[in-house]
Design a protein that fits this description.
416 residues; 9-stranded mixed β-sheet; mainly beta
């Protein structure tokens, strides 16, 4: 709950801060904020006055938003519904949004309890945080194919919402986007899917639960499995492209996880607090790892198949990095070794692991019998045995070898 409230509070405060000064002009009872004063001229629909609280119920009844509006000799295209534009307009009953609009802003229709109908056009690509939260009279909504992202709590506590149509284009759904709706209440316990997104786990998860997500799943929603301490294994299909914020937060039963090659980003706090997670495999398409993504995970090994080092946000890993083995592609070792986010790890080649070897450095003049004891043979990197002479087996082998890299006792050994 603390994680959810922290993120939600930050998002809502962001909405308030971003709209401290809004209305620039009004035409036919609709208020606009200029978003581009140079060609092409654009505006966002907003609330009346300077602050959200300046007026109340400025919009009532049915509102039809035009595609463009002319003011002071300039024609502006309406491209968005601004943050908190219709917030708390309890007398608003229906809204028609034009094809020119691409985004419905945060808290845009927050607590519009009288809203029974809204038409979302094919032009909209994003429905932001809390956009329709608390619209208790809304009974159905159709999300068009153009939408790819539905924000946190977007339809939270829309208690009358029984029907939701979510297209395959949606790959991102924020936490609690549909919680508190009749649609959610009617879902069976277990993994709940919203379109092609694994939205959440409903009910209490039994101990030792192993989950295999459906083939064709496109995303894992924000906080989808948050706090599911009974989860011991999850299989993520190759169709998933993103793991969203807090998706596996606090899943203390997870010990290892494989992130498939289809995934491109691991979002903030995705695996935070997974206190049993010691091993993770990261696919070759991951380019970014979010803030505190693996914070609180006692990782001892990471297998990262990305050719180029993914960028990591602050505190992505909260471990003693030198104690964690990072296996990367042979041709990528040098890049990871100098990358600001990865250089502190114990970086090894995936080829080394395949041979079951580790790095050991010795000097040709060393005499420590334990370090120099050879029991399994000595090989060069091409696999050729170099200690046919039995005197190399137990004696001080470094003094009898040329400087170079060898495999000794199953370890990659550098003789200097």
């Amino acid at each position: 709950m603390k994680y959810f409230l922290r993120i939600l509070l930050a998002a809502v405060l962001g909405m308030v801060a971003s709209v401290a000064s809004a209305e620039d002009f009004a035409v036919d009872g609709i208020y606009y904020e200029i978003t581009s004063s140079t060609t092409p001229y654009t505006v966002a629909v907003t609330y009346r006055g300077t602050y959200i609280t300046s007026y109340s119920n400025e919009y009532t009844g049915s509102v039809t938003i035009p595609e463009s509006v002319t003011y002071s000799g300039k024609t502006y295209r309406v491209t968005s519904i601004g943050n908190s534009a219709f917030r708390d307009c309890t007398g608003l009953t229906s809204v028609t949004i034009p094809e020119s609009v691409t985004e419905i802003g945060g808290c845009a229709f927050w607590e519009c309890s009288g809203l029974t109908s809204v038409t979302i056009p094919e032009s909209v690509t994003e429905i932001d945080v809390c956009a329709f939260s608390g619209c208790t009279s809304l009974t159905s909504v159709t999300i068009p194919e153009s939408v790819t992202s539905i924000g946190m709590s977007a339809f939270y506590k829309c208690t009358g919402l029984t029907s939701i149509e979510i297209p395959n284009s949606v790959t991102s759904i924020g936490s609690r986007a549909f919680d508190g709706t009749a649609w959610y209440d009617n879902q069976s316990d277990g993994v709940v899917y919203a379109g092609k997104v694994a939205y959440t786990y409903k009910g209490t998860m039994p101990d030792n639960t192993e989950i295999v997500l459906e083939e064709g799943t496109l995303g894992i929603g924000g906080s989808a499995f948050r706090g599911c301490t009974g989860l011991t294994s999850v299989t993520i299909p190759q169709s998933v492209t993103q793991i969203w914020d807090g998706a596996f937060f606090g899943c203390t039963g997870l010990t290892s996880v494989t992130i498939p090659n289809s995934v491109t980003s691991i979002d903030d706090s995705a695996f935070e607090g997974c206190s049993g997670l010691t091993s993770v495999t990261i696919g070759n398409s991951v380019t970014s790892i979010g803030y505190e993504a693996f914070r609180g995970c006692p990782l001892t090994s990471i297998h990262c198949y990305a050719e180029y080092p993914p960028t990591c946000s602050k505190l992505a890993f909260s471990i003693e990095k030198p104690n964690c083995k990072l296996y990367v592609r042979p041709g990528s070792v040098d890049m990871y070794s100098v990358h600001q986010d990865w250089y502190e790890f114990n970086i090894l080649s995936l080829d080394d692991e395949a041979l079951g070897i580790e790095d050991v450095n010795v000097n040709s003049n060393e005499t420590d019998s334990e370090t120099l004891r050879c029991e399994k043979g000595i090989y060069d990197l091409s696999g050729r045995k170099v200690n046919d002479d039995e005197t190399l087996r137990y004696d001080n082998y470094p003094s009898k070898l040329k400087k170079g890299i060898y495999i000794v006792n199953g370890r990659k050994t550098v003789v200097r």
